[in-house]
Write a structure and sequence with these properties.
By secondary structure, the chain is α+β, with helices and mostly antiparallel strands. Helices cover 51% and strands 17% of the residues. The longest helix has 34 residues.
């Protein structure tokens, strides 16, 4: 695998970094989203980048009907609409196949396990229940809600579209969080009308593919942040041996991140890359804190908050590593179909 960037790729990186650094503050975030979406003519690269462009839009593209794709994706791509994936509290990492097998649907709750349930009403599907820790769920225009259907014993998990602005019976509460943590919300649905996404087939496979994409994005993001912190710490500090260890961890995380980008079908690779990226960022933030300096300390504190929040949403480092080992076959098991992390005995 050749991970070297071309001259054109380096130029794109420099231009994008300059734009992002200039536009991350306060009210300029939504403006930045629109500028990037219109300029690149792709899914919005904004504060809701992860929720909209990495989680929700690929699911609509993979599972939605032709009409749903034609109706929803152009507005998302132009930055006129944002979206969020709502999964029962604490289960997102399993739903995405990052910390467990997502094929049995138990992660969605339903039946006797709470979560969100769906049943057919007079005019179509209605949803009821609650989902916590919904990334950017407080302000998303469109919600993709994972709901358990069909009763406890014979049920399955489907994804439903809820247009938040017009949804009667929907309550959204933004959760308290550190300033630099990813914003989350609790959703309460009281017989909210929902539209089935596509035919209802292929949900676990699509979620697994999205999970690997999310892991790659987060791993690359973590490596970039760790690199910045380490550069600042090296400019101020005298503990070169300790910095060398952190540098080695960051470079190892970079290699893992690049590998999962180059090999998106590797189930365990995404989880492992995310684990290494988060660990490297935490180590670099620790060195930045020790080195002192106002801006470096503030950035390090923000990175600590981001790592903690990402572990809540996408799985603690130890669980990410354990699942990567489980599906890799290192200790006598293999990773099934390479999509969702289904296990088979060797």
């Amino acid at each position: 695998m050749d991970a070297a960037f071309t001259a054109e790729q380096d130029a794109i990186r420099r231009t994008l970094n300059e734009l992002l650094i200039a536009g991350v503050a306060g009210e300029r975030r939504r403006e930045l989203w629109h500028r990037l979406a219109e300029g690149l003519e792709r899914a919005p690269l904004s504060p809701p980048l992860l929720a909209t462009a990495v989680l929700a839009a690929p699911l609509i593209a993979a599972l939605g009907s032709e009409e749903q794709r034609a109706t929803l994706l152009p507005d998302i791509a132009a930055g006129r609409s944002s979206a969020a994936l709502a999964v029962s509290g604490g289960a997102l990492s399993v739903a995405l196949g990052l910390t467990g097998d997502n094929t049995d649907g138990g992660w969605a709750g339903g039946g006797r396990s709470g979560g969100v349930q769906a049943r057919r009403g007079e005019k179509g599907w209605v949803l009821y229940g609650q989902a916590e820790q919904v990334l950017d769920g407080h302000g998303a225009d469109l919600l993709l809600v994972a709901a358990h259907t069909g009763g406890f014993a014979r049920g399955r998990v489907l994804l439903f579209l809820v247009r938040a602005k017009d949804a009667v019976g929907l309550a959204r509460v933004r959760q308290a969080a550190a300033e630099d943590a990813r914003p989350q919300a609790t959703l309460q649905l009281r017989y909210v009308e929902g539209e089935l996404l596509g035919s209802g087939e292929g949900v676990a496979e699509a979620l697994g593919a999205v999970g690997r994409a999310v892991a790659a994005v987060l791993a690359v993001e973590a490596v970039g942040a760790a690199e910045r912190l380490l550069a600042g710490a090296a400019a101020r500090a005298g503990g070169r041996a300790r910095l060398a260890e952190v540098y080695a961890a960051v470079e190892a995380a970079r290699s893992a991140a690049y590998r999962t980008v180059w090999h998106p079908a590797d189930v365990g690779g995404g989880a492992l890359a995310l684990a290494q990226g988060l660990e490297a960022l935490r180590a670099a933030a620790g060195e930045a804190m020790r080195g002192g300096g106002g801006d470096g300390v503030r950035e390090a504190q923000g990175c600590f908050a981001r790592v903690a929040g990402d572990e809540v949403l996408f799985g603690p480092v130890e669980r990410l590593r354990a699942w990567a080992v489980e599906v890799s076959g290192v200790f006598g098991r293999t990773g099934g179909d390479g999509v969702t992390g289904t296990k088979e005995a060797v």
